[in-house]
Amino acid sequence: MTDVQTSGQETSAQETSARETSALETSGGCDPALAEQLMSDLCFSRRASERCWNLQRQGRMTLVAPLTGQEAAVCGVLRGLDLATDWVVPYYRELLGLGALGDDLFETVVAFWRGHPDGSRIPEGVRCLPPQISLGSQLPHAAGLAWGLQLRGEPGVVVAFTGDGATSQGDFYEALNLAGTRGLPLVVVVINNGWAISTPSAHQTAAESFAAKGAAVGIPGVIVDGNDVLAVLAAARDARARAAAGAGPTLLELRTYRMGAHTTSDDPTRYVPPDELAAWAERDPITRFRAQLTAAGQWDDAHQQAVDAAVEARLERIVDAALARPLDPSDTLDHLQATRSPRATEQLRDLTQRLHRARSAARPEWK
Predict the structure, then answer these.
(1) Do 97 and 191 touch, CB atoms closer than 8 A?
(2) Closest CA to 87 of 152, 140, 174, 155
(3) Average pLDDT of the segment spanning 283-295
(4) Three-state helix/strand/coil letters over 34-45
(5) Mind listing the pLDDT tens digit for each residue in 136-195?
(6) Tens digits of per-residue pLDDT, 40-82?
(7) Which residue, 45, 239, 256, 322, could crosslink 226 as a Cys pair with Cβ 3.0–4.6 Å?
(8) Which of 262, 283, 288, 290 is catalytic?
C-alpha cells in the first residue's frame, strides 16, 4: 500500500512493556465492584462518543472528537486516582471518557461540544481544569498546579493528558523539565493513538518511544498497553503512589489506536490503512475486558444488559439537561475571568448593543 502512511503502531505485545500483562490474567479475577465500575465507565464513554457524533451530524453540536477505541486509556487512569484529592488536566480527546468525574462534569463536557459558554466552567467541587484545544499548552499549567500543591503541602497529585502529536511542542518538554527538577507530584499521560490528525506516530518522533522522552528530563517513562484497562489502572496507581510519596513525576505512554475520525470534520479513510485498522479492531478494549471477565467467571449477558441499560439512562439524562440549557450570544464572555476586565466589559456592552440592533431590525415590533 504505497499511497497511505501507516501510523507505525505495533500490534505485537512483545514490543511493549511487561506491564501490559493484565492484572486480571495474573490474579485470576477482579474485584466485582471494580469490574462493574470499569465496564460501566468504558461503555458509557463508547456510547457518549456515538451519541455526540450523531448529535453533531444533526446540527445540534458544533464539533466532536470521539474517543472510540481509546476508552481504556482514559477510564483506567481515572479509576487509578483519588478523585477527592487529585487533579485532572485534560486536553480534548479524552473528554468523552471523563464520566467518572460525575454527571455535572459530563453535562459540562456535552455543553462544551455544543459550543455553549458553560462548557468552560467546571462545576464546584470537581478537581478538573477546563478543556484545552491548543496542543500541549495545558502541560505547563499542570506542572504549575502540581508545584502549587507541593509548596502548600496539600495532598493529591496532578494527572495531565496529552496526545502523541503534542509531544512535539515546546510546552511538553518545558513542563516535564520543571516537573523533573522540582520533583513535582505530576503524572503526564501520553495517549499514543497512532495519529496526530493524519500524521502517523512514526513521523512524530525518531525516539524509540514517547515514554523514552522522560530520560531527557530525568523522570521514568513507562509503556503500557492502552487497550488493557486493568494494565492502565495498575500503571496509573503506581505512578500516582510514586508522586504522592514525593518521588516525583512519571511519564506514561498508553499505546492504543484511534478507531474513528480525528473529529467530526475529518475523513480517516483518506489516510488510515484498512488492514492496520482491522488489526487494532481485534483488540477493542471493551470486547477484550468483557472476554477477560467472562473467562474468569465474573461476567455474563445479564451483567452486560444491566450495565447497558444504566448507561443509556444516565447518558439520556445528561444529554437532555445539556441541550436544554438556554443559549444566548451575550453569554459568550461568561466564565472567562473571575472578575471581568474593563476591556471585556466594553466588548460585552458592544456585543449587547449589536444584538439588540439586529433583533430590532429582524422584528420591528421590538422597537
Answers:
(1) no
(2) 155
(3) 97
(4) HHHHHHHHHHHH
(5) 999 999 999 999 999 999 999 999 999 999 999 999 999 999 999 999 999 999 999 999
(6) 999 999 999 999 999 999 999 999 999 999 999 999 999 999 9
(7) 256
(8) 262
Domain that holds residue 257: 13-327
Total domains, the chain:
2
- 357 has catalytic annotation: no
Is 3 part of a structural domain of the chain? no
- Do you know the residue count of the chain? 367
Query: Of 187, 282, 259, whose CA–CA distance to 7 is shortest?
Result: 259
Element holding 190 (H helix, E strand)? strand 186-192
Among residues 241, 228, 193, the alpha carbon closest in space to that of 75 is found at 228
Q: Tell me if 340 is assigned to some domain.
A: yes
Q: Are residues 295 and 352 in the same domain?
A: no
Is the same domain home to 236 and 189?
yes
258 is catalytic: yes
Catalytic residue among 258, 283, 288, 290: 258
Same domain, 90 and 58: yes
Q: Which of 91, 92, 257, 271 is catalytic?
A: 271
CA distance 80 to 146: 17
State the DSSP H helix or E strand holding residue 250, giving kind and residue range, or none if neither. Answer: strand 250-255
> Does residue 134 sit within a domain?
yes
DSSP assignment of 107-165 equals HHHHHHHHT-GGGG-PPTT--BPPP--STTTHHHHHHHHHHHHHHHT-S--EEEEEESG
Q: pTM (2 decimals)?
A: 0.90
Which whole number is the average pLDDT over 117-135?
A: 94
